[in-house]
Amino acid sequence: MKSAKNVYGVLKVGTVAIALLIILVILCLVSISVGSAGYSIPEILQQITKEGNNPVKVIVLNLRLPRILLAIMIGACLSTSGALLQSVMKNPLADPGTIGVSAGAATAASTIILLFPTMTGSLPLFAFGGAALACFLIYSMAWKQGVDPTRIILSGVAINSVLGAYTSLLQMLNSDSLQGVLAFMNGSLSGKSWYEVRILAVYSIIGLVLSFGCIKSANALQLGDEMAKSLGIKVNLSRIILSAEAAYLAASTVAMVGMIGFVGLVVPHIARILVGSNYKVMIPVSILLGADILLFADTIGRSIVPGMEIPVGIVMAVCGGPFFLYMLRKKGAHYGN
Amino acid sequence: MEINGKNVQVLYGDYIAVKDMSIHLKKGEITTIIGPNGSGKSTILKAITRLLKYRKGTVLIDQKDILSFGSKELAKQIGVLPQSHTAPPDFKVKDLVGYGRIPYQSFGKKNKEEDERIINWAMKTTGVYDLREKSITQCSGGEAQRVWIATVLAQQPEMMFLDEPTTYLDISHQLDTMKLVKKLNKESGIGVVMVLHDLGQALEVSDRIIVMKHGEKYAEGTPEEVVTRKMMKDVYNVDCDIVWIEGRKKPLIVYREI
Is A227 on the interface with B (CB under 8 A)? Predict the structure, then answer.
């Protein structure tokens, strides 16, 4: 591996990308065969190609495959969203939660599930709207002759806590019907079908393609506001466009499967440690890495305890934290200096 | 190219940082703005380069209002190296210098060969070509400063603005940076406008010096005209002598013993 490293200890993008792709393929194969009923790959292939319906075919095609695709798309979207926000805020702690996406979606979702249960069918729409509204609120509060990252973060903290208090109160008052809310808060891929896959595919493909258009301004913002400005970048406009793009990506996933924390925060950092901070390579690597990690977490979550599902959000936090600390100590010796 | 600032006033909230200042800058010259801390020298530099909004007055580039320039269009005319700039520690020198080409790139429109040629030229001119594969943190302070100057140079501006380019550098790198500025000005005719704290260096390299005090212009002229005992007393409240030494083209400032 020595030869693949450049002077800074950053790995070559090609090497990393191919490795991540291979891991993704392996994870897909593992994920499709494990579960409460385990099948071998040849068995699956044999059954799928058969005419008519059989249990293996139903489980693999209608339950596992859509779930795998969802995990891949969600991982990709959330990591890209986090990566963009970390450039916008010039802050390593920025993630989709910072700009109110999670709190906004949670507020809307709790309101619908607890107060207007008849409208639960349109939950994704309301969650998306809530996320967008909270994000808009935070940015308009932070606006003062431009958007300053510190002001965004601070007004984010304020609005997140107000929304959090409202959500908590609502839950306390309706503590007998919390199941749906809890499922939303701890983002789970359980029971999702091709319906969600199709919708999210449209949203995420548009979002991910657009994110490649953000690379140049995301890079320039890392050089400091004045430097970016003197290079001809419209700093305020770029911040808003990048934030909107990040909010859109995160809100799309939250609307479909609920809140999954940690991916948006940690994946961009691991990507940075692997290939460096240039968004030209960091975004594609974040996309692949996010897909890998979320698929891994979801597969663990649904197979580690037989007969029980651990929501992917919880697995992410439990496995992701220690792994990130390991990366930070082992590989990121210069990182954060 | 000429830059004309007329009656420029800049406020920070209620505080008047620059009162009512006119400033005239020409291509081909090295102009240095000096003055004590808080005299408004960085502020006026930012105002005439549109990094900061001014409350009153106008700034014209060749008779055209600076506010009417598109942001990329402006970045091709003037390049600014602000005092505060950062780069992620793993950014490579050649990539960083490459950002100087942003004003010439738009979505889907990029002249790769031309960009590469100018990036290489900027790195060679500033003497950082051999460092191109290194990351910015592997460069010394002086090298890093030259890399940043190369980034501005890659914008191919007619005038270059440097805000305290020698602060935080040791004396040998300070002198290197000054030599580089002088060389760039001589060889390519680029106009240079600097804010400097070191009066000795200002004397040495400038064609023209602007002295600021309390947000206003105190004096303007050639180094010899401007740097006098009276100015030093009035502006900095410092006692000194201006001494000429045989064999040196510029005088020296000798401060009274402490």
Answer: yes
Contact (CB<8Å) B138/A7 = yes
Residue ranges of chain B with per-residue pLDDT less than 70: 108
For residue B101, give how far its alpha carbon lies from the nearest alpha carbon of chain A (Å). Answer: 8
Query: Taken in order B91, B97, B103, B104, is the CA torsion positive or negative?
Result: negative
To the nearest 10 degrees (0 to 180), the angle between helices A312-330 and A263-275 is: 30
Rounded Cα distance between A235 and A217, Å, is: 8
User: What are the tens digits of pLDDT across the range B82-128?
Assistant: 988 889 888 999 999 999 999 998 876 778 899 999 999 999 999 99
Residue B71 touches chain A, beta carbons under 8 Å? yes
The answer to whether residues B82 and B117 touch, using CB atoms and an 8 Å cutoff, is no
CA distance A306 to A70: 22
Q: What is the 3-state secondary structure (H, E, C) of A262-275?
A: CHHHHHHHHHHHHH
Tokens read off for A96: 């989709």
Q: In this predicted model, what pLDDT tens digit does every residue of A164-217 receive, in sequence order?
A: 999 999 999 988 888 888 888 888 888 889 999 999 999 999 999 999 999 999
Reported pTM: 0.90
Nearest to A284 by CA among A189, A197, A209, A179: A209
pLDDT of residue B127: 94
